[in-house]
Please model this.
Amino acid sequence: MDTSQQEHFQKIISDRFVAIEAELKGLEQGTEVISPDVSIGRLSRLDAMQHQQIALANKRRCEEERGRLHEAERRLRDGTFGTCLRCQGSIAVERLEIQPDAVTCVPCAQR
Ligand SMILES: [Zn+2]
Model:
């Protein structure tokens, strides 16, 4: 992978970080603890708790992706970005464009 490609992927990763931060910010209000004395009725309380569970799951997913993106940045720096961890072959650029945190090539991912 040459320097211009590395810069290209650094930008994709940076953009993902911005998007994740924005999503996490939006999820913050959804993950607040629901106070038991809030008089919103039983059904809407269940509803609120369900929404909270979804928000928490989304938050976890965002945080996991953020962790993988930090790893991808590290691989960009040490020159192993785009190299499959399993077969040491090259990961298709098209795959990395969509999923910059991918650590395996498509054939290995499907194995
Ligand atoms: Zn592979």
About this structure: The chain has a mean pLDDT of 91. The CA atoms of residues 4 and 10 lie 10 Å apart.
